[in-house]
Amino acid sequence: MNTFLHLVLRSILAISIGTASFVVYVLSFDIGFPLTLVCSIVTGFFTFLLVKGIQSSMWLNKKGITRKEYRYISKNLKEAKEKIKRLQKQQLKVRSLGAFKQILEINRLSRRIFQLVNKEPKRYYSAERFFYYHLDSVVELTEKYTFLASQPGKSQETFLSLQQTRSTLDELIDSLEKDLEVVLADDMDHLKLELNFANQHLSHKKDLK
Hints:
Layout: H1 4-28, H2 33-63, H3 67-91, H4 97-119, H5 128-149, H6 156-183, H7 185-208
């Protein structure tokens, strides 16, 4: 929401109106240069905040969410970002090629879901299972796996636990794939509608020939 272009626009408007207000204050009020300068700076500052509020409201309306919803989603995205960082760290700790591929796929799916929701916050409601359950599970299990796998002199029980953990990770990869499908469901429906419309249009053109 707070893009660089928005920041530039706010800054330009704030400086322009602040400068214009300085001229108006000098011509209209005999309050001395220091106070006039302070008043113009305050005017520019409030202009900056006002434009920021307008930009924020327009962006939220465009995304179809309220300010309260955006704060809630942003909080959860911030927590998810930290968890994904923890996942990425585990990537460097595994020695098994099979486990490396597993964690790589988990990272790929998790980042993709996060990026989609970060770009379109309204998608959060389609990805709640990911944020509430699956992300926590994959983080905990990958950390458990890399910890156990790094221990020397593994017992039979440790080997069994590692195998069970990798099996569970496979199941969680399937769950993440389904989460991604749900997040993209509206896009797929829209694509099908567009394809149907295009096919109908082409069929109609053929019938006219």
